[in-house]
Amino acid sequence: MSRVLIRVLWLMLISGLALQGCTPPKPVRLGAPIEGYSHTSAAINWFSVNGAGGPNLAPYGYGGGQNCCASLPVKWHPGLTVVVEWEKDPNVYDSINWPKPRYSDAWSKAAREHQAKYTRHRAVVPVARYERLGVVNVHFLPCNQVAVTAGLMMPGTPKYPFHFPQKMQEPATCPQP
């Protein structure tokens, strides 16, 4: 009887070890939704985080809906950065003065001239410390500065790492990088 019991225990041990190979490993990285906040008078026509697109943003706008997804580590670590790229329209309300009618040759020419003034930017940005990966929030600040967090805290809550005013003015001169 004891031999049978030893065999059963031995088979259970081997089966248990074999089944452990079937357990999927915990992910090291996950896709996190992207949301943006413009704290300036410029519109953000588009932006991306590590190549994943975020929503366009109106001047002093926020949210724009969430886009999916920036790949980030499940666990924050010192030195964690993301690459943020964006296109900015510094004169978003110029179209009020464009020639009428809309889509005429004169209007289309004004639109092309306006688009030529768009600026493109790229920044490697540190990600604020997070305990659990959540929404990637990208804050566009004066002087083409960007701040990024990726935790579960929502802007405006006490533990959120940034407390920028929604409307910030560009200084007369920006610091040189």
What does this entry look like structurally?
With 177 residues, the protein is an alpha+beta fold. It has a domain at 28-149. Helix content is 17%, strand content 34%. The protein is built from 2 helices and 8 strands; from the N terminus they run αβββββαβββ. Strands 4-1-7-8 form a 4-stranded mixed sheet, with no helix packed on it. Strands 3-2-5-6 form a 4-stranded antiparallel sheet, with no helix packed on it. A hairpin with a 3-residue loop joins β7 and β8. The longest helix has 19 residues, at 2-20. The termini are far apart. The relative contact order is 0.18. The model has no long low-confidence stretch (mean pLDDT 87).
Sequence of secondary-structure elements: HEEEEEHEEE
| Assembly state (oligomeric) | single chain
Radius of gyration (CA) equals 25 Å
Share of helix among residues?
10-25%
User: What is the average of the pLDDT values?
Assistant: 87
Strand segment tally: 8
Q: Can you tell me the overall shape?
A: elongated
Structural class given helices, strands, pairing?
alpha+beta
Number of helices: 2
Strand order of the largest sheet: 4-1-7-8
Could you list the spans in which at least 5 consecutive residues all have pLDDT below 50?
A: none
Write the layout of secondary structure elements.
Layout: H1 2-20, E1 29-38, E2 43-49, E3 52-54, E4 62-73, E5 81-89, H2 105-115, E6 119-126, E7 136-141, E8 145-149
Parallel strand pairs: 1-7
Antiparallel strand pairs: 1-4, 2-3, 2-5, 5-6, 7-8
